[in-house]
Structures are given as structure tokens and as C-alpha cells.
Design a protein that fits this description.
CATH class of the largest domain in chain A: Mainly Alpha
Radius of gyration of chain A: 25 Å
Number of domains of chain A: 2
Order of helices and strands of chain B: EHHHEEHEEHHHHHHHHHH
Largest sheet of chain B: 3 strands, antiparallel
Strand order of the largest sheet of chain B: 1-2-3
Helix content of chain B: 55-70%
Distance between the termini of chain A: 14 Å
Oligomer: heterodimer
CATH architecture of the largest domain in chain A: Orthogonal Bundle
Radius of gyration of chain B: 26 Å
Shape of chain A: flat
Number of helices of chain B: 14
Amino acid sequence: MHYLLKRILYAIPVLIGVNLITFVLFFMVNSPDDMARMQIGGKYTSEAAIQNWKIQNGYDYPYFYNEKVSGINSLTKTLFYRKSMSLFTFQFGLSNQGRDISQDIFVRMRPSIALAIPTLVFSLTLNILIALFTALFQNSFFDKAVRLACIALISISSLFFIFLGQLLVGKIFQWVPISGYQSGISAFKFLLLPILIGVIASLGSGIRWYRTIFLEEMGRDYVRTAKAKGLSDFTILINHVLENGLIPILTGVVVIIPTLFLGSLIMESFFGIPGLGSYTLDAIQQQDFEIVRAMVFLGTLFYILGLLLTDLSYLWVDPRVRLGESS
Amino acid sequence: MTPHWIFSPLYSDLLLYIILGCIAYLIARSYRAPYFKSAWKHLLSHQSASTAIIFLICYFGIGCIDSIHFKTSGVNSAQTFSLLDVLLQPFNINHTTTYSEPLATHLFTPTQSSTADGKILTLYQPIELKHTAFSHNARLDRLYHALLGSAVGFFLFSLSYRLTAISRMQKIPLLTFCMLLIIGGTIVSLATRYHVLGTDKIGQDIFYTSLKSIRTSLMIGTLTTLCMLPLSIGMGLLAGYKGGLIDDVIQYVYTTLSAIPGVLFIAASILVLQVYIESHTTWFPTLEMRADMRLIALCLILGITSWSSLCRFIRAETLKIKELDFIQFAVLSKTKMIRILWKHILPNVFHIVIITVVLDFSGLVLAEAVLSYVGVGVDPTTFSFGNMINSARLELAQVPIVWWPLTSALVFMFFLVLAANLLSDVVRDALDPRQTIG
């Protein structure tokens, strides 16, 4: 418990660091004056109008240190505190179009999850199954063919799968719509193609990685013992190798689970799914820094959450691990 | 073009020369070190690795030729062009202003005709194979040039087979080399008169565009590494060796940087960079310089997002190595820290560096395509696979479908990444002492 508390506390300076970096990136180069000019538009950029815009939108503060007020206020009445630290309380403010970002994120999280979780589950299952078989028939023709296919798969740009999928399934056969989204049950037909493509794109690297894990496990002493006992290869594989091999796989997957909420930039924008990924992409393309900053913050938060969950999952699945002593 | 060419390298060219120098130095050195010598032997004994090396040499060769830039001394001195442009001059002559044969089979402007019962039919007229000035029979002319080209290719192959040491290569690399020469000969022979891979919307030759894109891919793949290597090696060694407060600070820095979602960080940095370049246009007078600057900046940013993993590996390995006897001995005999790090620890972690570099290369090449799609990749005016794919994306929706610009970009990229992946697999086997070879 002591260790966990330490990890959680360690997350705070990391988050502040990330905030500082994004703050510097956005504000130092694109100053509030520039933002005001861009928002008001070319003609009416008088000094007064800029000041007015800054006051209206809460940008009328110095960056880091306010000399005009004393005490703790000299730190809180600054742009950094008001714009960056407010993210910690999940107050993301308004986007350039005046929409509430928190509300948008909350609504858009659902399609992202609806896409990401089935993709993860299916690809994980398929990857593990194929990897198990290649490990079982190591150096057979099947194994070699799969290995070759994997190298070819990881060499293909994921964009290719998207194009091909949209072309074949969506356009030529016309089984499912190419893009778009509806909430509820009818979301299924919109999600089918992206999920399929997501699974296929994950095959190459997934199988390769899991295969090495299983092969490593198969070289262990307990496998030799089991063989000496006269157990069949298949039993050993299912009862022992799979169980032990799942530990590194599970802990590897736990890291990415929180980030699933953020959705996939590429998939969502190609298939027109109104999730957080396409939200972020739109924000990038429209230069809506408020949204990008919120998403960077959320991404960091989820990443750290993932690391924390990984530690926890080690503790849970592997009795040999005692947290705190190792680090 | 005036005959006076002035050698005027772009900044990225200079960086590429540095990288090539480093690679050459490393190869030369590694031939002497016994450990790396056995690794080389292992590498070259693998057919897949030597085939991959042949492919990579081709790609790098094209990339290097494309990195030697000249300026004309005439009035129009702003124009910069590379050696590759000069060599490909005959390919890039526009015979047409829109999509063309051989891959476009139908015209894109439909002709409407009404049938007997009054229905209006929309037809796409087939494109006739064009007759050139050289020959009246288009098909025969093509066949003749294809055969001529492949014959020259095969002749070159048999010549080099007789005269050089390549006859000692194994079957598959030899076959690949032969095929490359024959296909190359065919393409070069055809490309002087026709667009081998067709043209894009504005009549630009696809084959030319693809060759020009190679440089950008290689730049991203190698320059990024160059940007991150000094940082991650230095920090990793220092953190692992010194420990204590320095270790904590370095760990904090790389945890923070790797905590930021990669794509978002790149996007944010590129946005900022755009604003910066736009407000400092006087520093980058020509479009080419601006595009070049953006390429370098992209590599730098990619380097920042990817240095942490290598740094972490090196730190962990250094922690292990510094407990070994020979380091303890060096410490006791009052060797300077810099010397210990440079002479004793660095050579022992260098296999990690090489593995990471080769592994990262393919990922970076693929990432460039995705980033360009998101709009935060290289400059839209730069030739790159990402830009090719991006501009070809909408053409897929056209009727009759325009598939060749996209396919060419993907195929060229596929072979580059495949070669890098094949090589990295064998390199990992050869250099990783923990992994059993097989």
C-alpha cells in the first residue's frame, strides 16, 4: 500500500511536468494576443478589441508570475494556473466554438469505447490462439508460414488495410456502410468493418510477440518436468504454458486499457465514428488548442493510470512479485 | 538549365552525410571487433538478411543521389534540384496533363450517348494506347523496349557475375539481384518514352514521384535516430552509472515525456512550428528550405518522443554492468568516469543501440505515412509516401477507380519496410546474447 501511495504521488509531478510542456508549447509561441487576433479576425484587431477578448476569455493574466497581487494569488492569478492547473479538476473550459469540452468528451467517449474494446478483445483472442498453435508446432511448415506472414503483415501500412477494407467490403460487396455512425444497436453495422480491420492490422506484431513469450515458457524447467511425467504436448500447452504465458501478456495489455478511452485517431476519422479520436483530429486540424490541451492531459492521465494498473496486475497474477522492494 | 551548377546542400543533406559517415565508420570498425565480426558472419549467412541488404542498398542509393542538391547559377537561382532530378529528367517529361495509360484504361470525362429507346447512357471511353513519334505500332514499341531493357539488365548481371565476387552469394540474394537488374533495366528503358506506372491527376509521373519519396522516408527513418541517440545514450549511461539524484531527475524527465501521447505531442509541436515558420518567413526564404526545415523538425520531434525507451534499456543494462568486476577494477584504479562510460560500458550496451535503431527504422517509415495523413507530417509540398497516399485517398472513390498512385506508394513503402524488418530480425538474433539463435 505504501508503494502504491508513492506511485500515485509520483504521478502528480509528472502531470505537472506534462502540463508545463504543453503550456509552453502552446502559449509561448501562440500568445494570447495571437489567439485574440485569430479569433476576432483580420479587420478589427485594435489593441482595445484584443484586450477585450482576453478579458472575456480569461486570458488577461501574465504567464507564470503575477507581480500585481501578493501572496498565493501571485501564483494563482496567472495563465498557467488558470488554464493548465484547472485541468486537474477536469474543468476543460470551452472550445473555440463555445462548446463545453467536458460534455463533448463525455459524449464522444462512448463510440470510442464501442470501437476499441471489441477490437482489443477479438485481436487478443485471435493472436493468442494463433501464437499458441505456432508455438505448439514449432518449426513446422505451419509455423514458418505464419512467421513469414507476420513479417509481411507488420511491413504493410495500416492505411492499406483500411483502404482495402473500405474498397472490398464497403464498396464492391456493399455489405456494410463505408463510414458513419448511429448510436444504439444499429452501431453494430458501422463498427463491424473498423473492428475487423483493427484486428487484422494487429495480427502481425501480436502473434510475433506472443509466440516469443510462449516459446520462452516452453523452454522452462516445469515444462520438461511435465513432459517427463508423460503429459501430452497439448495438455502442457493449455494447462501450463498458456497459464504462465498469460502473465506477461496480461500485464502488457493492462497498460493500454485506459488509453482505449481516447480512441483511435486513424480508425475513427476514416470511418467517420464520432469518438474522441476524431474529436482530437478535428481539433488539431482546426487548431483548437483548448481541446488539444485537454486531450493531452487526459492521455497522460490514462497512461499513468495504465502504469499503475500494470503494477497492480503484477501483484495480482504473480505471487513472486512484492511491490516496493524491487524499485 | 545552365551548365553552371553550384553544389548547394540543404541542411538535411548535411545531416544525412553525417549519418552515412557514422554508418560507414561503424561498419569499418565492426569488421575488426571479434564480437561484431561473428555477428556479421551470422548476418550474411542468412539469405533473408542479405536479400534485405540488397534492397536497402538500392533504396539508400536512390536516397543519397537525391540528397546531392545543386543550384543553377543563372538568373533563376532559387531553383534547387538534386542529382536524381537530373538523372530522371527524361522520366519527368509530361506527356499528358491528367491520368494516363498504361494503368488508366478509361477516360475520366464521361461521354453521354442515347440509345434507341431514349435512355441516356454514361460511358467512359477506353483510352487508346498512344502512338509515339518513334513507332507506329504502340504495342510492338513497348514490347521492344521492355525486351531491350531486360536484356541489358541481364547482360549487366552476367557481367558482374563473371567479374565480381557476387558469384559467391547464396541463391536467393543472387536471384534477387538478378531480378532487380532485369526489372530495373526494363523500367528504365520503358520510362524514357512512357509513364511506367502511369500519371496522377495533374500528369505527374508516378514512378518519378515514388523514387523522390524514398529520400523522405529514409530521412525520417535515420535522422530521427541521429537526433535521439546522443541524448538517450548519454542520459541512459549517466542515470545508470551515477544513480541517486541524477538518476531520479533523468527518470522523471523521460517518464514525463513518454507520458504525453505521441501523436498529440507531435501534432502540437508541428502546429507550433508552423506558426513559428510563418512568423519568421525571412529566415527561410525559399519554399524548399521551409519544407526542409519542417522535415528536420519532424525528425527532431519524433526523436524526442522515442528516446525514452532506448534510454530506459540503456539505464537498466548499465545498472547491471557497473556491478561487474572489470568496472569495479576500473573504478578502483581511478579511471575517469567519462573514460569508464566511453571505453567500458558503452561497447557493452552498444548492441542494444543497434537493435533499437534497426527496429525503429521500419516503424518510423510507417509512422510518416500516418502522420502525413493526420496533417502533421512533412510539408505538403515535399515528395513523400504519406503525401502520395494522402492525395490518392480521395481518388479511390472515383469511378473508374484510380488505384495506381496509392498502390505504387504502398508497394514502394512495403518493400522498404519489409527489408528493414527482415534485417532487424536477423540483427536481433545476431547481436542479442540472451536470445538463442535459431
